[in-house]
Design a protein that fits this description.
Blueprint: E1 7-11, H1 18-28, E2 31-36, E3 48-52, H2 59-67, E4 73-75, H3 79-87, E5 91-93, E6 99-100, H4 105-120, H5 133-153
Parallel strand pairs: 1-2, 1-4, 2-3, 4-5
Antiparallel strand pairs: 5-6
Helix pairs in contact: 1-5, 2-3, 3-4
Length: 154
């Protein structure tokens, strides 16, 4: 692993755990990069950098994928973005605390495609499950564990 520092890259437009990311980052003195294509109110903290990208399909995803390195932890629900970051060696967590890695990304892509097909055909009409306090707690634990694992790799 190279000597650069661990960073937390956040697909921030619809991320429900920005405050939790900053809390963990503060505990470990890690840089947080919030990438979005719309201005957002977010945690004010010296470790946080906000990057506003032009609006357009995948602009934020492209910026995050370009930035990601093997030292980084990426927080996103976007499966194609997760796959791109995993290819670069980054760790990926979903906001509900579930990790996406080389072993699970293929299944995640397949499930995403199946869900899209079922929505298109009207077989399912609802969206994802509501974000719960349990998801938030699971995310905090998962992010702390991911940071600890990255530190051990270094």
């Amino acid at each position: 692993m190279s000597e650069s520092k661990i960073r937390l890259l956040v697909d921030a437009d619809a991320c429900p755990v920005k405050d939790e990311v900053v809390r963990v980052a503060d505990r470990h003195a890690l840089a947080v990069i919030l990438v979005s294509n719309a201005w957002m109110r977010g945690p004010d903290h010296p470790l946080v950098q906000r990057i506003l990208v032009p609006s357009g399909p995948d602009a934020a995803d492209d910026r995050i994928a370009d930035e990601a390195t093997e030292n980084d932890i990426v927080i996103t629900n976007d499966i194609p973005l997760a796959a791109r970051c995993i290819e670069k060696g980054a760790k990926v967590l979903r906001p509900n605390g579930k990790a996406i890695d080389q072993n699970s990304v293929g299944m995640a892509v397949a499930m995403r495609d199946l869900s899209a097909h079922l929505r298109e055909t009207g077989e399912i009409t609802g969206g994802p499950a509501a974000f719960t306090p349990r998801d938030r707690s699971r995310f905090l634990d998962a992010l702390e564990n991911a940071v600890q694992a990255q530190k051990k790799r270094k």
